[in-house]
Amino acid sequence: MYKIALCDDEAFQSTKLEKMIEVHLSEQNIEFEIDIYEQGESLLRAIKQQTTVYQIIFLDIEMSGINGIETAKKIREHDEHVLLNYITSYDKYSLASFEVSPFRYLLKPIEKQKINFLLDSAIEKINLGNHYLFFKSNRRQYQLCHDQIIMISSEKGRQIRIELTSEEQDIVFYGKIKELEQTLNLLIFVKVNHGTIINMNCIKSVEDQLIHLINGKSVSISRGKRKQFSEAYNHFIERSIGI
Fold it and tell me: What is the total count of domains within the chain?
């Protein structure tokens, strides 16, 4: 499911854009949720408080209170991956608007063809980047950015535990680690034993067949996974340093 936020102090504009998005994504059989905010302040509060993250955000540049550019800068402090889209009545953009690496600009009045093209491009980019893990626990839908995850482990063959980079409590839910593994970005995550998947960004050091993680925990590499881990980790390091 894709989480989308619209932030515009003109309710008519938000309603119109919401309808365009609903029609196009429904035609594509894509699951989504849309939240609407009338002020940058309220959007920022929601981003700070919620456990899920938005993947696509539309910001009106000319808003009362905190304008779209300042809102975008503060959003980037919490999320580097969300696709930010500016909505504006002008076709000239200030240099400040480029600081947050916006995905697209939309000129008012918004045209159906342009919003459809933007949505298709955004979803393709999200899928290629695969920055998110989706799962359901106790009837609650979670959407975690890969940067938030240190390790995923199976407990008793029935439960999955997700350990987070923040100080928040681990997330535990019923599921199969094999099914979860299929949804992960294998350029970042690697399975090191039968029931453990780690985020290679969170490795502090590797000593013999033991992996030390940034949260102080250590995980052993099983005999059957040693070659796979070695190849995956070497490729990860090469990509990280640009080789």
Answer: 2
